[in-house]
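Cross-check.
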Amino acid sequence: MEKLSLYGSIDEKGALSIQNRQRLIEWAKQYPGKNVVIKFERKGSKRSSPANRYYWGVVIKEITIRLRDLGHQWLTDEDVHDMMKLKFNHEQIVSEEGEVLELPKSTTTLTKTQFAEYVDNIRMWAAGFLSINIPDPNADLTMQF
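Predicted model, tokenized:
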């Protein structure tokens, strides 16, 4: 079943207004007699380009370098990103028998606040588990010679 994302707003009195309601009607006509899940979430700001550059250029890069130093030469930045998603941004699926499967979720859907928490959790983990200090995004990284 094709996913549908629509935007809307809630006024001061709590009334919901959906933009492009006709699109919702047309989508529903494609699936007569089917059960659907309707999710509502607050629209948040997505991370900025500087936050994305910090994540890939500092956080992920520092962890990749450290893991390679520990003998894992084959690891790429993308591998480390996938590891961090699985560890800090995942969802659990539980079977009827109680078996738990953890699936990494995309970080692109995180709000600025959620992404900042995600990065902070990674930095704390890296300090404890890998004994590396990943600098704060606002740190002065000027090298002294």
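The chain has four helices and four strands. The longest strand covers residues 90-94. Passed to J.P. for a second look.
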